Every structure is written in structure tokens, then in C-alpha cells.
Amino acid sequence: MNLEELNKIAIKMAAPGKGILAADESTGTIQKRFDAIGVANTEDNRRDYREMLFRAGKTMREHISGVILFDETIRQKAKDGTSLVALIEAAGSIPGIKVDAGAKPLAGAPNETITEGLDGLRERFVAYHALGARFAKWRGVYEIAQGNPSHNAIHANAHALARYAALAQENGIVPIVEPELLMDGDHGIEACETVTEWILKEVFQELFYAGVKLEGMILKPNMIVPGKKCAKQNSVDEVAERTVRVLKRCVPGAVPGIAFLSGGQSDVEATAHLSAMNALGKLPWPLTFSYGRALQAAPQKAWSGKTENVAAGQAAFAHRARMNSLAALGKWTPAEEKKAS
Ligand code: 13P
Question: Which domains, and CATH codes, for the chain?
């Protein structure tokens, strides 16, 4: 393992004012996104949509440090035959790959999941590296409901994340370690804080046991927010303060960057929360975005599967990327949001 090289990549992924575009929706997940805009989920449409994003040159160059791809996309070619990976690289952005095989029911743990995909992962990393991937993503999923998550689920997912991360580093690929506590449910922000702290403690313990070098990874956590159905929705400042508090308790300063998932927050909420955290003053690590929905909902709607809407889709992507770029610097304001929209 070349830790210096991994560290360089990780630092670039969390470069000031830049963040990650999570465009790694599986074919099933993109189906839901396309259903919402009335677009058929065909290979060509998936290609056209992602090509639109990756060809937004100025946006990609200025705001997007890396793009997480799905297996199909890392092998796909643009309409003119250029590989989509080459489009990303041409914009100075780093191609990454989602390598987990999804969350499956965890035996002996009702309503809980374990993320699968470790079998054959070493060989897949070798192949993905040859295709241009320099970082990867693996997501563990937990939910607050009926006494869950259990220690069994928290431990099993942390262990899988650590095995994945060690294999990624062995193959010259920076692991994004993503433990996601879902926003589903009516629990309060306090429960999210308590459980997230537990999950992160367990994850870093397992990373240590597996020999994962913290300097060569990126953490992708959820923010500390109340459940979507909770009657009390806390202020932006409270979310920012609680999130930073938990991260300071759990994430060593050796980690080169933390890139949040949006998890179902609205576009503007995800931006406002990130900016408020970065405005809190000097932190041990750069905090940025690795958003899927919060970066793509607007461009998807503007595009709606029509060639004549490509410019509008790219404009919507440019706007959200710029807003999140400001947030990564702690400089976003509601006025910026209005000014540009
Ligand atoms: P969201 O930002 O839509 O939560 O997606 C991020 C992601 O990569 C989830 O694994």
C-alpha cells in the first residue's frame, strides 16, 4: 500500500470548496428517480442523464472533486464514444466506484440489515482500478425503530466496512466509509445523536483492528437531525452544533476529510447545515458534501429526459453545486440562494 498516494487522493477529494457528486444510484434506485420525472429507465437514458452532468465542464472543474459511479457507468461511453470516466478526468475530477452489493436482511436481527459484497472484492478492486477508479464507497445502513439498531447490526456493519476499507487501501483505492443512520421515523434529534455516536465509535474501533490507515480514507456520515416524522424539527444551528460535537468525539484528526450524505434532507437544508458547520470556526478536518439527491433532484427535474433541456439541467446542477461549494467554505447565505435562482 502506498499511503502517501492514498493520502494525496483523499486530500484532493476534500479540497477547499469542492465536494463529491454521488451519482452511483443502482439501476433500482435510479428507477425511483426517473419515475419521479417520467423518464424510462433504459441504459441510454441513464447514460444521457449522467453524460449531461459530467459534461458540465465549469461546474465539474470548480466544485466537484470526485464522482461516485455505479458499475454500469464506469464502463459506459458517452454518445460520441468517449468513456464517461474520461469526461470526469478531463474536468480534473476523480472517478470513484460504489462496490457494495446493497443492504440485505441480517440473520437473527429482525428489521435490520447487513451490507454485502465482500466476496471477490479484491479482484473487483483490481479491475476497477484498471478502469480508472481511485476511490470507492461502501454504505452500512441503520434505522432507529423498535429498539433497533442492535449492537449486533452496528458491530456487523462496522466489521464489514473495515474489511472493505482495508481491501480498498491494499489496492490503491481510497475507501469512503459510509455508515448511514436513516432519517426515517419520528425519533428526536437526541436519539440520532446518541446512536450516531455509538455507530461511529464502533466503526473507528473496527477500522483500527483491520489496520486501516486513517490518513487514506474519507468518512461519509449522516448529520445529526431529528427523524423526518418527528414533531420537533430543530434549527440549522442546533443540527450544526450537535453534528460537529459528535464528530469531534468520534473522528480522529488523522482523517483527511468528512463528506456528508444528504439522506433525504431538502436541497437547501443540506446546504444550510453544511455551511453552518463550516462557519463554526476551525475544525480538525475539512467538512464537505457527498450528496446524491441534494445535488441531483433539481437537475433531474429540469432535464426530464429531453435533449432540449440539457442546458437547463446543467444550469440547475451548476447552481446546486455552487451553493454546496459555498457551504463547504462556510460562506453560503439564503441571499446567495435567491440571487442565483
Ligand atoms: P444522498 O445524498 O441522496 O443520501 O446519497 C448519498 C449516497 O451516496 C448514499 O449512499
Answer: 3-340 (3.20.20.70)
Helix (H, G, I), strand (E, B) or coil at 180: strand
Q: What pLDDT digit, counting tens, does each position of 99-137 carry?
A: 999 999 999 999 999 999 999 999 999 999 999 999 999
Q: Is the pTM of this model over 0.70?
A: yes
Q: Which of 222, 262, 289 to mutate to test the pocket of ligand 1 (most atoms within 8 A of CB)?
A: 262
b/e sequence 265-288, b meaning 16+ C-beta within 10 Å: bebbbbbbbbbbbbeeeeeebbbb
Q: Are 330 and 301 in contact (CB under 8 A)?
A: no
Cβ atoms of 189 and 155 closer than 8 Å: no
Angle at 264 between CA 39 and CA 291, to 5 degrees: 80
- Measure 139 CA to ligand 1 centroid, in angstroms: 9
Q: Among 67, 293, 296, which is best to mutate for testing ligand 1, by the most ligand atoms less than 8 A from CB? A: 293
The residue contributing the CA closest to ligand 1 atom 1 is: 292
Residues framing ligand 1 (Cβ under 6 A): 22, 139, 178, 261-263, 291-294
User: What's the gap in Å between 21 CA and the centre of ligand 1?
Assistant: 9
Cell of 44: 441510454
